[in-house]
Queue: 4 jobs
Job 1
Amino acid sequence: MSRYDKYETFLVEYPQPRVLKLTFNKPERLNALDVVGHRELTYIWRDIDDDEDIDCVILTGNGRAFSAGGDFSMIEQIISDEKVRARVWKEARDLVYNIINCGKPIISAINGPAVGAGLVAGLLADISIVGKSVSITDGHTRLGVAAGDHAVILWPLLCGMAKAKYYLLTCDRLSGEEAERIGLVSMCVADEDLQDTAMEVAQKLAAGAPNAIRWTKFALNNWLRMAGPSFDASTALEFLGFASAEGREGVAALQEKRLPNFDKGSPV
């Protein structure tokens, strides 16, 4: 029995020796994550870290999306249920730290929309590869909550504070090519070359010196660990927002496919 048999969210494959490929596998829902999917994406990295049979991981999506964020049922539970909000807040923190602390190098092949926890995993991957037709956006403030999860710990380091502030405050979209230009992703390739490119990189890593690669990742990720207090604050503020009027209005507007009407009274 494989350690990955318990996971419902992913198609698990071994396309090459010592290479694990995880594919978000609910294409009919654009690979959106429900409560189970969010939890599985958070904790699968611990199993991967302990797996002595693999040296690197590819993460991608089945169909035309990478992962279209959390589904509405989970978001509604976060808004309405304090216990669910506290649990998912912990998962959101654990997801980021589990990816950072996973010793195996992670490659993301971002093949379509990437939102929420999917975007977290896609951009926190050690090597992120995006197709040219893909656009990237972090839509937290449009949703009425602070830019939490990976944004504060990662974006300023990858693309600089000026670009991070612009895109995180405005929620403007970046093309795949622009994301590569500003350093938000490792590379942008033609859509038809995406999976082959990810596999080429995986084979290169799997053929390398495993300890040297893992230790290099560990040392480099100390830059992210130093930003841990800022990340912890941002994620707490994000989930505080889900309990606010702005969070409720942002989610309602998204569901009703309209522009949000935020109260412009005195801010807190």
Job 2
Amino acid sequence: MSRFSEVKDLVMGLEGDFEKFYEKGNQAAGTRVRKGMQDLKNLAQEIRTEVQNKKNAG
């Protein structure tokens, strides 16, 4: 479940920047949101690969 925790932590860490960007128009927060979403995409791909490998091994 540590991978799930990583995903949750990443998403929760972006909450403040989402609010700053969407509600206050803070452009720097938008940049952080974009970076965080890219990190989330990369993490998701890593997890998908791990799951596929584990599934195929068993």
Job 3
Amino acid sequence: MLEDIRKPSLEKERAILIGIYGAETPRWLAEEYLEELDLLADTAGANTVEKILQNRPHPDPTTYIGKGKLNQLKQITTDFKADILIFDDDLSSTQVRNIEKTTGVKVLDRSGLILDIFASRAKTAASKTQVELAQLQYLLPRLTRFWTHLSRQKGGIGTKGPGETQIETDRRLIGKRISTLKDKLEKLDKQRTTQRKGREESTRVALVGYTNAGKSTLMNTLTETDVLAEDRLFATLDSTVRKLDLENHSVLLSDTVGFIRKLPHNLIESFKSTLDEVREADVLLHVVDASSRLVDDYIEVVENTLKELGIEKKRKITVFNKIDRLDPNVLIDLRKQHPDALFISAFRGIGLLKLKERLENLIEEDYVRFAYNVPMSHYKAVAFLHEVANVSREHFEGNHVTVEGTTSKEDRSRFESMLSEIEMVNE
């Protein structure tokens, strides 16, 4: 279990955010990235006091921003009385050691910050185990520098993790702990698989999207429930499943952890069991924050993450959310660029009827009409049809019953297999 290794300060830490821009990343885009980093820092509990951008084609291998800029950063850190420096890219152990030695304050990179947020927001046994595993895998190559400066820290962001003495004593203990956590996740995954088996007869719809796109708000509005929904990044870590009643069908709607740019690979690997709700869904609802300037980037991040999970070809409905925040002309342009998408406001309840209709039509594509004349002795097969199908007509004549209606192609196959097995036994 993750525990704070130092008692956290009651006051917010003062953070300076640092990034670079150049030919590949123009300044305006780097500024947007720092805005997102600011949101991450706020979610972690820090107060951003300054943002710094350095014009460089590539990060400096020893200092990230160059020795001259690093000396300036030392003075800026003193002037703003900063407690922590947060960088928008991942840093090597050498970079962290040099920056800390020069500035004298704690240094955290983007992955470390995201992992810290996950550590503070993990509530269930599964998510706590997943986060601890990701943190240990992140810390392992950084051990040479991490524990040398930790004794000087007073806690706060970046220090929520496994106990200090365990890791200092023997590096092999981390490897052993990682193996233990992987075994634990495997057991938890088997439990989750058992739980999901009870839901196999229902159509499953998963909400996916960039973090803070409004997935939880959409789930609350559609299902009239109260899943945690905050205007913060990573409000949801554990998957939540709720029943959604449509006009002719009921589906199971699941809300899962949001994706983000440069999401640490170890975190994706660790959370794959949680993301099984996405992998095993019949339909994906890709929720997009239409009000963001980086809407195209966010779509690309989600598509790439789905590809990494091997589910990019699943049936998908793209839903642009937060249209109540849009200029009408921007909305017109978005509709032209994405003619097959839906445009809604989950908060205002705009466009939800069309979303339900689109979802129902997509589900109907899986449904087929049937008419079976079944011997009365095959009552188990008839009972199965009543359980999984929409039976529109049932007529009894002699020793047979005629059953008509609609069902999914999968349930039709299951029924016909059941019928064949019964007939084989009777023979």
Job 4
Amino acid sequence: MLVKTFGSAVHGVDATTITIEVNIDKGINFSLVGLPDSAVKESQQRIDAALTNTGFKIPGKKITINMAPADIRKEGSAYDLPLAMGILAASDQINSEEVGNYIIMGELALDGELRPIKGTLPIAIQAKKEGFKGFILPKQNALEAAIVSGIDVLAAGNIKEVIDHFNGTEAIAPTILNTREEFFNRLNEFEVDFSDVKGQENIKRALEIAAAGGHNVILIGPPGAGKTMLAKRLPTILPPMNLHEALETTKIHSVAGKTKDAQGLITGRPFRSPHHTISDVALVGGGGFPQPGEISLAHNGVLFLDELPEFKRTVLEVMRQPMEERRVTISRARFSVDYPASFMLVASMNPCPCGYYNHPEKDCVCPPGVVQKYLNKISGPLLDRIDIHIEVTPVNFDELSDRRPAEPSEKVRERVLEARDVQNKRYENNAGIYANAQMSKQMINQYCEIDTAGQALLKRAMERLGLSARAYDRILKVSRTIADLAGSERILPEHLAEAIQYRSLDRETWAG
């Protein structure tokens, strides 16, 4: 008897439906074809033990299973459940009439328990698109799949529940989730707040400008000055994600298996902070079976690189193209996959190996030339993509001991949202441009006009401070954001003056 069940394979952030054809005939043999990997081939032993421990069995006959399309490699243990259901249906141990109406996925434990899978959300989206009645999956993945409306999400704890459902003994109740209510209820949930930070008002101002214009930032300062603390609070002042961004972010984390069991939709902007020993493949994504890297997991959020010069140079250089194109393409001999990678880069570094160059109280003990050598670990092209350089100084005792509450993130975010509204109107006819940081050279010429006084100020600053040529466009972009925060249509000299001070590393005298 021939029976078809349906599973799914995830490539990039999209899913492809896999047809599992199970044929049982006379003889004794078990054949599994259709480019299965080792984990799929080993499913026979897991299925055999799981069925035996729940009162069923694999029939002692000739069983041939084909996983189509046969030219797509099938990877992972999530095909255990659809293979088991196909075998049971083809051997008349369960009713086969409804089996073909569902996408079925799940890994089997030897006692029949279902274990969670990766890529639940893209699979559910594809199942709905192709008109399947429902999606049968492990309970741990239920909330994630329930984000997709218009399809029955049937969550089971073990294989016996799935068997009873198809036999009509006990139907599995669909998991229902109000996606919009879930999204809006959890939109402003944060564990940290800007009000926790004592002092550092100039750094908070720089991060407010960065959030308002989508600018990349680098924080330079001695150990313990609060660089990491400030960076972790940046997502709390970024504009809230819209529903489309939340779905896109959840898809990427689902594919990587990074969603929490009890969490459906990811509503907060991601904050990723990889260690400096990370490889270039782990950062941008890839591997034999390509998976999203840290830059894709930070999509629509913040990628924080602590101690930037300690990262391998090759790792930092592979970020340059994704930072410009806001996506990364991973190519292999037989296929390529695209992962979105639109993130805000926030980096931090000590000013020198000992950490105390330019410190107001402690002396730097680094030999001559070491500071410049340390800074040279970061390439010019990478620094060119960072709009704001800000020096972080230690907080004094009076500020640390001040009991008065600092300004909360909610107040800062209100100003950021007002500035983003201005930018949304400005770029409504420019596809793919959402913030000032994304302006092209032509757009800078169009939207960043400065008067004669501003031109004179900028010329004088570049000459006296020894600013590099690449600083010119960056200063104009940042000054445009500062003007937007001030509610000014034109860029005034005071906006330029503030933007100029955020180019520390471009000063020829910075490292002596």
